[in-house]
Amino acid sequence: MTLYASDVMVKDVITISESTPLKEVTKLFGERRITGVPVVNAEGELTGVLSETDIVRKTNSIGAWSPSLAGQIMTKPAVAVSPNETLQRVCELMHNRHIHRVVVAEGRNIVGIITTMDILRAIATHLKSSKSDTFERKTQW
Q1: pLDDT per residue over 13-35, tens digit each?
Q2: Where are the domains of the chain?
Q3: CA 84 to CA 81: how far, in whole Å?
Q4: Residue 73 and residue 81: Cα distance in Å, rounded?
Q5: Which of 1, 41, 46, 81 could connect to 85 by a Cys-Cys bridge, CB 3.0–4.6 Å?
Q6: Whether the model pTM is above 0.70
Q7: What does the radius of gyration of the chain's CA atoms come to, in whole angstroms?
Q8: What is the enclosing helix (H) or strand (E) of 138?
Q9: In terms of Cα–Cα distance, which of 59, 60, 79 is closest to 70?
């Protein structure tokens, strides 16, 4: 059975605007227990992604300049896939780019998000429903 991005994605996506203050972002991360969010422009279109890692790396290594807004340090462009992308391809993208979330979009409109935890949940659910361990090691004696 092939899984697609639309099968795994979370549809209720929390987003922030490019002008969201970093103090609000860190508060949001703590309250919602998340580690990253898509960033949108005034029209609601995807422009980037901001993660805890971005905040730590870019606010501690810049020197005299101190960023205060999400749009100043977001990673852009965001890595996005279409809803009909295979989960295997999503995993390859995340692995190759060393990222923990991928935005699911149709054009510049966000329709979902997939994190590493969403992928683990999908695998666990798939294994439970198939009643077999796809990842079982075959040993030869």
Answers
A1: 999 999 999 999 999 999 999 99
A2: 5-130
A3: 8
A4: 22
A5: 81
A6: yes
A7: 17
A8: none
A9: 59
Q: Six-digit token pair at 78?
A: 């965001």
Q: For the chain, what percent of residues have pLDDT higher than 90? A: 68
- Cis status, amide bond into 77, omega within 30 of 0: yes
By residue count, the chain amounts to 141
Using alpha carbons, select from 74, 104, 71, 76 the residue that is nearest to residue 89.
104
The owner of tokens 């896939």 is 81
CA 63, 76, 64: angle at the middle one, nearest 5? 10
Q: Assign domain 5-130 to a CATH class.
A: alpha beta
